[in-house]
Each structure stands twice: as structure tokens, then as C-alpha cells.
Specification:
Elements lengths: L7 H9 L6 E10 L2 E10 L2 E8 L11 E5 L2 E8 L9 H5 L1 H9 L10 E6 L3 E8 L2 E7 L2 H16 L7 E5 L3 E5 L4 E2 L7 H16 L11 H15 L1 H16 L6 E4 L8 E3 L5 E4 L6 E4 H18 L6 H15 L8 H18 L3 H15 L9
Antiparallel strand pairs: 1-2, 2-3, 3-5, 4-5, 6-7, 7-8, 8-10, 9-10, 11-13, 12-15, 13-14
Helix pairs in contact: 5-9, 6-7, 6-10, 7-10, 7-11, 8-9, 8-10, 8-11, 10-11
Length: about 375
């Protein structure tokens, strides 16, 4: 007799020996290593806490919860938020008193508690903290990545590419940054062609920075992981996703190596009063890769954002996606592998929509993926 593998919820219930009546609600899933990190809100009696189930197989500096297997070959681990073993600096930064002490060592006086902006379990967290010298941003990452992040900021600064100033950092995996100069591109006034011009100038400047190590893109592997999750979580879409992945693989090209941002999109850009680029953020992923690693990230994010933006405000985002795709798809360098990489990103966005139960958005993102592979960016009809 065949038996189905236990679900993530079943694994968590068994590991924690939860009572049958305990409420377990999945709130997130992050691909990591050879598996994933899945977050759950657990309510048992009057207590409500957040646990994470980690099947990445990655080792950590120190275990902070329950381990199944051996420390150098973990099968599974479970931890209670914020004791993320991949991010040892997370718990200290997450609490106001500890954050105040840390900022004081940098000559800053906190004017409020840290506010969580982003938390991707096992990967990174970002906090916004008001201080007597303005807003600062505290980023928490795995310790092995902190040196690379600090070096990337220094390399961009030396090359004249504007990035936020690093106030201080710790080997434990924490860096404190000033706010970026200018207005976020998401809030600024621009035309699609002018913004793509700015992005092209930025891409050219980044290409001249002598970065070491590969950018953290690995889109080919991520596409395979996304397709596998569709098989398990949304079998109704699995056949369509398998076909998209087949088409990605058929047309995959690695492209000529150059320095890239690694996660470039208009949410990472800040503009000055005249529309000029005043800062680029999140250079953590910068390294070597194909030119289309950046162009695909930009197009896919614009498409995903356009589908989320209410009518009629979505029009300028659709124009941006269309302008960027048309320009770069016709470029021998920027367009080499653009379509497949863009679809890889879109599969990730679609999987997120599946996990939120948003069927309309899932279908729209897969429609956008089909259109990209056919060489089109098409705004859905109202």
C-alpha cells in the first residue's frame, strides 16, 4: 500500500506534540537550500505563537530549537520566532531595548521601537528605526553574507553609484544603513522611457564595477523548485506550469558574464528632483551574472506590480513593463535569456498567489508568463 508523505503541518504537529485541537495556520513559505522554511501561526489554548519548520538541510552557527537528524546533516528543525538559527542577529535586533543599545554604540539615539519591514525566514530581515539623526535601516542576514554586503556597498560607492551609507555592521550578520537619498521611484513622477533610460545607465555603471562572486540569482534552479511546489500545492495548475518550465529550459541561455545588481527593479530605485537616479538600494545580491538577470528581474517585477495596482493607476506601470521588455528583448545583450528568466520570476510570484489563495492573480501571472514567452507584454482587459 502506498502512503502519502506527511504534510508540513503534520510534521510540525508531531514535532511539537500539539494537542489535536490546536489551531495551525500556514503563513509563509521560503525556498531555502534543498527544501524550504515554512511559517505557522499556532494557537493552543490561550497562547498564540509563530513557529518555523525548516527542511533546508543547511547547517547553522547554533541551534535555537528542535533538531531532527545531526547538526552537520539536519533532516528538519523547528524554531520559535524570532530565534531564527540562520539569522543569529535577528532576536537581539527585534527587541527595542537591545536595538537601542546597539544603535547607541554607533552614536545614534533611537527615537522609537524597531519596525519590521521585511522578514523572510532563514534569509533576511529588515527593520526601520527612527533615531535622533533620522531613519536608519537595520538589515539582518546570515553571518556568512555580511562581509560580501559591506564590500558591495563600498565597491558601488567607489564607482560613483549612489548607495545608502553603511553606519556599522557586525560579524553576527547585521548592518545599519542610512536612508537612501531622494524619492522612491514607486512614489516619484516619471515617464516609462525616461525611467528605463535611467536603468540602462545604472546597468552600465554596475557592469564596470569589479565585483567578485556570482550574483544570487540561480533562476534556473528556482524555476524547478517553483514547478515542484505547484505539483504539490496546486495540482490544477501543474500541467500548465510544467509546460512553461519546459519552454524556459528549451530556450535557456547563460549569456555573457558581467557585474549585475542581482535583484533590480523599480522598487530599488530612488530619484532626485529632476528625475535623475539618486540612489539604488539592496545591493546585497550584486555579483557576476548574465545581463538578463537584471533586465528579467525588472520586467517581472513591473508586470507583477502592474497586476496589483488598481485601475487607472496601473497604466503607467504597464507602460513601464512594456517599454522595458520591448527595449531589452530587442537588445543582443540585455535580451539574451530575458524571456526565460522573466518567466522564472513570474512563476515565483504565481506560487505566492497560490499560497495566499488568490486564484485570479495566479491565473493572471501565468497568462503574463505565456505572453512573455511569445514576445508580448499585454495588459488584461477590464
Amino acid at each position: 500500500m502506498l502512503h502519502a508523505a506527511p504534510s508540513d503541518e503534520e510534521l510540525l504537529r508531531e514535532a511539537l506534540d500539539l494537542a489535536p485541537g490546536a489551531s495551525v495556520t500556514r503563513i509563509s513559505r521560503e525556498p531555502l537550500g534543498d527544501g524550504s522554511v515554512v511559517g505557522f501561526d499556532v494557537v493552543e489554548g490561550a497562547a498564540s505563537v509563530t513557529y518555523f519548520l525548516d527542511t533546508s538541510g543547511r547547517t547553522v552557527p547554533r541551534e535555537t530549537g528542535l533538531l531532527v537528524g545531526e547538526p552537520d546533516a539536519p533532516d528538519m528543525r523547528v524554531w520559535l520566532h524570532p530565534a531564527d538559527p540562520h539569522l543569529p542577529a535577528l532576536a537581539p535586533v527585534a527587541f527595542a531595548h537591545a536595538a537601542e543599545s546597539m544603535l547607541a554604540r554607533l552614536g545614534l539615539t533611537a527615537a522609537g521601537a524597531p519596525e519590521t519591514v521585511v522578514y523572510r525566514a532563514g534569509r533576511r530581515a529588515v527593520f526601520r528605526v527612527p533615531t535622533d539623526d533620522g531613519l536608519v535601516w537595520v538589515k539582518v542576514v546570515p553571518p556568512a553574507r555580511i562581509g560580501r554586503i559591506v564590500r558591495a556597498h563600498a565597491a558601488f560607492d567607489r564607482a560613483g553609484v549612489p548607495v545608502p551609507t553603511v553606519r556599522g555592521w557586525s560579524d553576527e550578520g547585521m548592518v545599519v544603513l542610512d536612508s537612501a537619498a531622494g524619492t522612491p521611484a514607486t512614489e516619484a513622477t516619471w515617464t516609462a522611457a525616461a525611467l528605463v533610460d535611467q536603468v540602462d545607465r545604472l546597468r552600465g555603471a554596475i557592469a564596470r564595477i569589479p565585483l567578485k562572486g556570482r550574483a544570487r540569482t540561480d533562476l534556473r534552479r528556482r524555476a524547478a523548485w517553483y514547478a515542484d511546489r505547484f505539483e504539490h500545492e496546486a495540482p490544477g495548475y501543474a500541467r500548465r506550469v510544467r509546460e512553461l518550465r519546459r519552454r524556459i529550459e528549451t530556450g535557456w541561455r547563460d549569456g555573457r558574464e558581467r557585474s549585475v545588481h542581482g535583484d533590480l527593479h523599480f522598487g530599488q530605485l530612488f530619484l532626485g528632483d529632476s528625475g535623475e537616479l539618486s540612489a539604488v538600494i539592496d545591493v546585497d545580491t550584486a555579483g557576476t551574472g548574465a545581463a538578463s538577470d537584471d533586465t528579467a528581474a525588472f520586467v517581472s517585477h513591473a508586470l507583477s506590480s502592474a497586476l496589483l495596482t488598481p485601475v487607472p493607476h496601473d497604466e503607467r506601470v504597464w507602460l513601464l513593463a512594456g517599454e522595458a521588455f520591448a527595449r531589452w528583448d530587442a537588445d543582443a545583450d540585455a535580451g539574451d535569456g530575458l524571456r526565460g528568466r522573466t518567466v522564472s520570476h513570474l512563476l515565483g510570484h504565481a506560487l505566492g498567489a497560490v499560497q495566499r489563495g488568490d486564484e485570479a492573480r495566479t491565473g493572471a501571472l501565468l497568462d503574463a508568463a505565456d505572453a512573455v514567452l511569445e514576445g508580448r507584454v499585454t495588459r488584461p482587459r477590464a
